[in-house]
Known about the structure:
The chain is an all-alpha fold. The protein contains 6 helices and no strands. It has helices at residues 9-21, 32-38, 49-57, 61-85, 91-108, 112-118. The radius of gyration is 15 Å and the shape is globular. It starts with 8 loop residues before the first helix and ends in a 7-residue tail after the last helix.
Amino acid sequence: MWPSRRPTGLFGQTLELSRLLCQGAQPGCVPQQEMAGLCGLPRIAEYDAPQSWAAASAGQLPRLLEHSAQRAACHYLMWLRLAALQGQISALTRSQHEQKLALLLSQAGGHWQDFLQQWPAHNRG
């Protein structure tokens, strides 16, 4: 059951997206990586709290931050698709945002190259 006062910010938006995708069912009923795969987006593995702690404790904080950034990008792409489906934004606006993100990520290089390879151009906009 949802708390009477919902969280705000990006975390609150993540919970709200989860609720919408699950049609009001239990939060988190569909893992993000599965939903992303259905949308033709990169399937970024999910880390639970013990996995995140183990990675941070092992000195893999940069890798953990990269992973979090990729999950946030994937979440943003799923939000764009949901907003377009709900008529909150046009298909053109969604496409423009996806193309802009793809351009920014291609310029960033590094771990984003793997993300872009998993996100084929024909699935962008």
